[in-house]
Amino acid sequence: MSAEASVGSMAAVSAHTSVSQAACQNSEDHGNRGLLGSKYVKINVGGSLHYTTVQTLSKEDSMLRSMCNGGTEVTIDSEGWVVLDRSGRHFGLVLNFLRDGSVPLPEDHRELDEVLKEAQYYRVQGLVQHCLTAMQKQKDVYESVCRIPMITSAKEEQRMIATCRKPVVKLQNNRGNNKYSYTSNSDDNLLKNIELFDKLGLRFNGRVLFVKDVLGDEICCWSFYGEGRKIAEVCCTSIVYATEKKQTKVEFPEARIFEETLNILIYENGRGSGPGGLPLLDSRGSGSSLGQSEEEGAGGGDRRVRRIHVRRHIMHDERGHGQQTVYKD
Fold this sequence. Notes:
Helix content is 37%, strand content 22%.
């Protein structure tokens, strides 16, 4: 009985081995043939299960089509699932693109990059181009955004201006730094200066660095820098000496500000101040009636700072009506 049992056990093991080898051979043969003759396909992508058709997988000349026609070897488990050793997070998106020809892409740049990697792996060129186009649109949107740094300390301001290779326009805007009342039009003019700062930031974005300083001593003052040094300054505030009280007046010299912004463009890309140190536009030209211009510094014309004050101090004398206004520095 023992010998018969041993012979029976060996026969069973031999039969089981033969069946297993036959099953493996059939699976291997089926894998080599691809998915020919199949209509529906079950795909297991990293644990994510998907049902689709051979027609869908064959819509583009991709690795998935190659799997269907036997050009690429596939692995099929005992339950008939095609196993792909890949993350299945975005595989559904790949299938939807093959079904419809287009698909909404994620807005997050990281996720969009992941979809691009999957499309490149499966060689779905239509989806690859779709992802690249979406990335370019995102890049264009990011480049059109104007970023204006907010200065919080004098050291931060000096470091930023000294290390910046672009021309710099700085607006000091501190409405609270005033011990007098404002004139009737001052608030409107202050807002106009802020709006002009934003408009210039959008117009010259990428060419000029725009800095807004809300902690400075000036109520409204524009400063223009090139190659790490101050080139010009436009002060928009003045003290009005009236008969009974003093008031702070804010002006809006739009033409002067725009002119000085154009002047510092000559410092773009390290081109310097041009031939003979001359500015692009003469700040003492047609717009000089807006205020008074001063030049400070002893290091030559190219080291002076143009300081333009728009009616910096005004005093009305108490002579009879019709007498001329007296301007004092």
